[in-house]
Write the structure tokens for this entry.
Amino acid sequence: MKISVKLFAFLGDQLGPVVTIDLPTNTTVAAIKNAIIALDPLVKETVENSRLAINQEFINQSEITLNSTDEVALIPPVSGG
């Protein structure tokens, strides 16, 4: 299934605001992150430290079931003040 993932900050600058990746319906957070890293290895550290949100809620479990209508976002760490 093709899933669109919204990206922000450095990730959005490097890869664009939305990327489309191909994943099985039953997948893992790690699989989503690895698919994004495969697009550009320079984003690896940021992706590994980012949180995944589905339908505007952070995901804490490692295995997830996605629907094609789910809104998926990768939220990088925030700093500054």
